[in-house]
Please model this.
Amino acid sequence: MRISKKNFKEVVTRNRWLKYVPNTLTLCNSLCGFAAILYTIRAFHNSEYDNRALLISAWIILFAMIFDALDGFAARIFNAASMHGMQMDSLSDMVTFGVAPAAIIAVMAHSINDATGRFDIYVYAMSCIYMGGAALRLATYNVHALTHKKSGEQFSGLPSPGAAAGVCSVLLVFNGTGLYDRFSVELALYLPIYAALLGFLMVSNIPYLHVGKWIFAARRNGRNFVILVILLVIIGVFKINALAILINIYIFSAPVIAFVKWLVRPKTNRMEQAAN
Model:
């Protein structure tokens, strides 16, 4: 027996405990971020660098994205959206997708023995750019949410979960393909630059697709549902390698599209002026 929307709203209204579901999911997100930071600290075990703890941290951060996607969905279906929930969501994202990935990058610097300490300064600076970008990105999102009643289908700037996924996916791909042990030094050298680039993308005005809304809305759109099924099958077959490729396509396709539009727009304007 199907429950109508009216009956569902009545059930939600009567059961006040359902109102706490979104904040509970958000809290789980922040706890995942805290756990990732704790495992990152464990990368120093008996003063020896341990990359396994960093890999666990990366998986925890990716897992936290499930809670981050579900809390907004739960807030909508239970009609429990609130300013308190919005602020809590941003604070949780800052811990999980801002501080935790930056900590991973900073700790990776200790895989290289640099007696001068210059390499540490370089990595810490790149980590600060990433974390600063995440903080500014989330603050901008909060201001936008305060001035607009409904969020659109796109973000302005790279979302912090997408940036964190970019960092974690690279780390996990290197481990999954057996390249981590061979190229750990190169990864420690260049991953901080990638993280800093993600920090700049987070504070940019480049439009990015709202993946969470797109996924939950795919069931009402036949074409998007087919695309989603295909993507899930690809991830199921090729696992972390496919996931990493899709994440980085998401990250870099938006700047490429924005750049192409920037190049084409002046030409279009000139053609329109000539026609007039």
About this structure: The mean pLDDT is 81. The longest helix spans residues 222-275. DSSP finds nine helices and four strands in the chain. The two ends are 61 Å apart (CA to CA).
